[in-house]
Structure formats: structure tokens, C-alpha cells
């Protein structure tokens, strides 16, 4: 997956807008935002990378938990009806 960190507001070819983290001059690199975008792109497949990169662990775990909670909610709703 492609995740871009860009300065300015211009479009980037071949990169979805949801996969772009925008920064402005003089700002510190928004590590938490970058990690959240990377975790979103990796989805459930992010666990092996998160095992090697501690900075990704929280974001990837949050995505996996949310994904399974959503799936369990759908199954639970389907069982009721």
C-alpha cells in the first residue's frame, strides 16, 4: 500500500486522498497520524509488521479490535432475527 506524507494541498497522482497525510512548513512530523493511516491501509494484515515496529502496535491493535467488534456485531444482529 502507498501512504504519502506531503506538504501543500495539491493532488498527488496515484495516491488516494485518504492515504495522504498533509503537513505544513515548520510543523513536526505527525507520527500518530501517519501510523493511523498506515494501520488503516494494512487492516487485519498489519499484525506481522506491528510485531516488528512498536510504533504501529497500538494503531494496528485498535483497527483489529474494531474490525472484529464490527463483525461480531453483525453476527449477533443476524442471530437475533
Provide structural commentary:
The chain contains 3 helices and 2 strands; from the N terminus they run E-E-H-H-H. The protein is mainly alpha-helical.
How many angstroms does the end-to-end distance come to?
38 Å
Mean pLDDT, as a whole number? 89
As a percent range, the share of helical residues equals 55-70%
The best one-word shape is: elongated
Question: Uncertain runs with pLDDT below 50, 5 residues or more?
Answer: none
List keywords for this structure.
single chain; 81 residues; mainly alpha; two-stranded parallel ribbon; 3 helices; 56% helix; elongated
What is the topology?
Layout: E1 4-7, E2 20-23, H1 31-42, H2 47-52, H3 54-80
Parallel strand pairs: 1-2
Amino acid at each position: 500500500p502507498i501512504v504519502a506524507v506531503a506538504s501543500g494541498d495539491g493532488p498527488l497522482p496515484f495516491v488516494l486522498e485518504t492515504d495522504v497525510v498533509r503537513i505544513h512548513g515548520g510543523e513536526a512530523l505527525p507520527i500518530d497520524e501517519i501510523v493511523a493511516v498506515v494501520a488503516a491501509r494494512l487492516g487485519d494484515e498489519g499484525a506481522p509488521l506491528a510485531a516488528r515496529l512498536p510504533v504501529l502496535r497500538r494503531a494496528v491493535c485498535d483497527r483489529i479490535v474494531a474490525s472484529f467488534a464490527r463483525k461480531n456485531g453483525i453476527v449477533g444482529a443476524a442471530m437475533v432475527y
